[in-house]
Amino acid sequence: HILNRADFYVDLSERLAGLPGIEAAGAGTAIPLSGGFRTTFTHEGQRDVPDSERPLTQYLSVTPSYFATLRIPLVRGRWFLSQDRRDHPGVVLINQAAAEAFWPDEDPLGRRIYPDVDITEIDPTEFEVVGIVGDVRNIGLDVDAGPCIYVPCTQQTWPNMTFAVRTRGDPMMAATAVRGEVLAMTDEASFSFRPLDGTLTRSITQRRFPMMLLGLFAAIALILAAAGIYGVLSCMVAERTREVGIRMALGAQPSQVVNMFIRQGMRLVLIGAAAGLLAALALARVIEGMLFNTTPADPGTHIIMIVILMMAAFGACYLPTRRAALIDPVETLRSE
To answer: How far is CA 125 from CA 9, 52, 79, 108, in A?
Structure first.
């Protein structure tokens, strides 16, 4: 029964890949971002390591087409082959994270491992590392790709597998064809079609709402900061209207007066921006664990923030000074 099930997974993957609108199909005990099974293992030279000290890794049983379907690249070595079955030596693929974690100073290809997994008595117990593949985030977007070991389902067949299907268009349009092909081979399958985008959304749902609130508060704070800078500098320039009149009466050109006030105002803003940037870099460490593909020192974010504040400061210095410089100096002095 186990042998028939292994052939079923491989055959069904090939039949699904041949359906119209489908590019590739493969099966595994887990798909990216959905978690999966973890186990400990030993490798040659460390067979007597106590259970509590054995390395822990993600562990997936997959069809050979699983990697092509999810576009997981081969870094070194070879893929699973059709002859990798129970009557041949056991083989596994590992990801780059596993290679760096368990064999940091040596080539893992050719090394033998002994997973603490016992599915049936006819499964191999010793597996040779024949290839290294790219890393995949199996748990969530906010969790780095950890060590992972892949074993061919034709050598270790698990009772339940999830099929991944890559389509050329809307994935849900292929659901009916996939259901019909599966039912043509078995009536024991359970169906739950879900686009990978849906899995991606669920993996960030818990963090989306607090990050939306944080983003809203940050936007409000930025607006208030820009308005505050504009108000303070505008008031500062307005209070020096008499000085503008005197300078103009003594022969200063409007452009000279405007440039002087802009330099003075922007100098203060630059000092404040530098202090604020240092504070922002320090406080960003607090939310570092909630960021994905963004570092606390993300230059784009800080540059946009500084540019907005500088524009507000420039307007606060320029507009009132320009208005004062265009007024007749005599009228300015008389009003004072």
So the answer is: 21, 20, 20, 18
Q: Which two tokens stand for residue 19?
A: 């359906």
Q: Which residues partner with 185 through β-bridges?
A: none
Could you tell me the two tokens for 278?
A: 């240092």
296-310: per-residue pLDDT in tens? 667 777 788 788 878
- pTM (2 decimals)? 0.66
Q: Which distant-in-sequence residues (6+ apart) come within 8 Å of 226 by Cβ?
A: 308, 309, 311, 312
pLDDT tops 90 at residue 24: yes
Nearest of 116, 136, 115, 31 to residue 73 by alpha carbon:
136
pLDDT at 288: 63
Structure-token pair, residue 312:
């507000």
Residues 7-15: contacts with CB under 8 Å, at least 24 apart: 7/154, 8/185, 8/186, 9/63, 9/153, 9/157, 9/161, 10/63, 10/64, 10/153, 10/154, 11/185, 12/163, 12/181, 12/182, 12/185, 13/63, 13/65, 13/163, 14/65, 15/181, 15/185
Report CA 132 to chain centroid distance, whole Å. Answer: 22
CA atoms within a 13 Å half-sphere pointing along the CA-CB vector of 301: 15
Question: Which of these, 260, 242, 235, lies nearest to 316 by C-alpha position?
Answer: 235
* Among 152, 45, 157, residue whose Cα is nearest residue 88: 152
